[in-house]
Amino acid sequence: MHIKNYIAVLFIVMASTFAAAQVKFEAKASKQKLGVNERLRIDFEMNQDGDNFNPPDFSNFTIVGGPNQSVSNSWVQGVRSYKKTYSYFLAPKSRGTFTISQATINIEGETYKTTPIKVEVTAAVDIPKDPNDPNYLAAENIHLVAEVSKTNPYLNEAITVVYKLYVSPKVAVDNWNEIDSPRYNDFWSQNIDTQNQKVQNGTYNGEDYRFLVLRKTVLYPQKTGKLNIEPLSLNIAMRVPSNRRDIFGGFLMTRVNRTISAGNKTINVKALPEAGKPADFTGAVGDFKFDVSTSKTELDATESLQLNVRVSGNGNLKLFKLPKVTLPSSLEVYEPEHTENVKTNLAGMQGSISDSYTVVPQFKGKYPIPNISFSYFDLKTESYKRLSSNEIVIDVLNGPSNGVNSNENNTANNNKQAVVYNDNQFAFIKTDTTFSSIKQSHFFKTDLFWYLLLLPFLAIPLAILIGKQKAKRDADVYGNKIRKADKLARKYLSSAKKSLGKKEAFYIALEKALHNYLKAKLHIETSELSKDRINELLKEKDVEETVITDFNSILQSCELARYTPIDIVTMQDDYDKAAKTISLIDKQAK
């Protein structure tokens, strides 16, 4: 009987061990049937840890959350229980019956797969409204809206996107932070300053709300067709009323964290018409004036004058080239100096751009500067227009002629005088000399002798002190890392300045400089260079929010440089902004 009990216990232990060793990997859906306006949760659970998890292709759904990962590890009566879960939150794209295919994972060298799940998506259903649910109250009383000025612009026509946060008087917002900033691929973009914005009163869906303008951006589309504007997403900490009351009868507030998004916006960009397009059209779109002028019209040869070609008005001033100037060969022309005086607001770019040529005439005479034309696409009339300058005549009053007469050459040769030689050909040699005696002096026991003798004894303490400082500096491994990163930041910032005009090389060098500066200033390694980590550390050092935003915008410019046409003026602005931002961080960081 005693032996039988041992055998039974042994059998139970072996059975439990076998059951624990059996791998389970399965998919679970929160519901098998849902409305098109509902959300579906899919959990992929396993009882042993694995590698290389590959989710299925959710082609008929939009992933609105996840993957979220959770791990449960416990011991009950000596038996280990382990569960790891990957969770996804899905929104159906359309009605129908869909199959969520298999997910795979590798556990101890073996590949395991889940069983496919069928899900039926029906027409929209009425979602129960629970006024006591804090999440429901938060969803109903706060909204993030992206207002687009125009959804079907022409190529290079300015549009604006204004992001507004609407908050109902029923709830209170404690704080928020951006978790995903919009990227304007295939757009030239300029953010408008929204500092010191005040909360305003307005309406949303016919109800009274308060709203705050979070961001204003001017966009110029650089491609035709359907272009996507990615959403702005915020994580908001807020308080909503609960069904509980305080001793005075007022509702108690409950804290809720909610993620909201402005949603994707699609812009349908129209191509400029081909009919009537001038041959010299360079992409100018807007309403412009054109002017060609000179600093003077009368001068002497070898004097200089300034020839100024200027376009002013409202439009994509930074995104097209001015017409080139063609002058007679007798006028020496230098490369133009490009000047931009452009401001960007919600109406787009406004101001002027100009090319200033330095012109130097070489010969006497009159030289006409032919008229110069400039063409652009007028958005008001939706047609091309051409502006032309008047002809300008440059009168060179004094100077050599543009050809020399042969008779003049002969006369000049006949007027040459013969060279007269002097009989005393060696008069320049000095034959009388004056000698002076040299007094012999001795170096021994002079002041210089004693100074040089004592110098090694004075240098020994100095050398010992320098050696100690060097040893201390060499032992400071952490400080050496910071100094090295700071040196690299200066090096790359210098490299970026040298690469002005070369878009890719410039922005690669600028991005390296910013990263190495952060490593030196925030005492972090390359592996920690994430946007959230950078924002967190800068806030801990009491750096102003506007400076952090400017720093992030520079990094974003580096990322988007390959997609956006950028000229040297924009590169110079980004370089100056980077230098200014680094200086502000140095002043503010504690």
From TrEMBL:
Pfam families: BatD. Residues 1-21 form the signal peptide. It comes from the Bacteria. The chain crosses the membrane at residues 448-466. Keywords: Membrane, Signal, Transmembrane, Transmembrane helix. This is BatD protein.
